[in-house]
Amino acid sequence: MAAKDPIRFSVPLYTVADAARIVDVPTSTLRDWVHGSTRRFADHRLATGDAIVTHVPSSKRADPVIPFVGLAEAMVLAAVRRSGVSLQRIRPALDQLQREIGVAHALASRKLYTDGAEILYDFGERPSGLEDGRALRGLVVVRNGQRVFSDVVEAYLSRIAYGADGYPELIRVPVYEHANVVADPTRSFGAPIFERGGVRVADVLERFWAGDTLGDLVDEFGVPADQLEDVLRVASRRAA
What we know:
This protein is of the alpha+beta class. The chain has helices spanning 6-9, 16-23, 27-35, 68-82, 87-101, 110-125, 151-157, 201-209, 214-221, 225-239, and strands at 37-40, 46-49, 140-143, 146-149, 160-162, 168-172, 181-183, 193-194. 44% of the residues lie in helices and 12% in strands. α2 (16-23) crosses α3 (27-35), α4 runs antiparallel to α7 and α5 crosses α6 (110-125). The protein is globular, with a radius of gyration of 19 Å.
């Protein structure tokens, strides 16, 4: 798969900080997902977490290391985090999920979206599953007799558009309320762009900080004012 489509699977497009901004999690959190983590508690117990996001190792800290498929995996994990469920708590369930889905990059696969809720729910009901299967109830609910992802998780997963091969080809950036901003590995090297017009968000922000007015940017790039205001709001919040 990767050999046929390296732009999505094997070309590193994002630094850890870049990807963290796109999926809206702290950089330190995404770094743990990419490189693994170790935590020591007051009673001297150690809790370790293996790397779970696809990355391409680099000896230079500032180099991009995350391909597009890794960004999609991070989106799924961001949904878990947003739901309030501890990733450390449900790692065994995620491991089982990847085994049962049975494809590479299971967290980024369309099969997660279509089959994942039922797999996770069933795992949580097993006596041999998690110590507390209730941890999964923040991710999966029963609605009209069907096992489905909770609204929080669904809101993130629905932002991933899948290609004919069942893997992501576009992500709608979740941090914005009004702006239609997407990450597309075939445009602008995967950097966030306005879907309408294709201009990079970073370029618009640079022009605004340099003194261009909102009206100037609307006229030049054709992006609606409310979308520009949304992007500026998020950028200002992050800079504060």
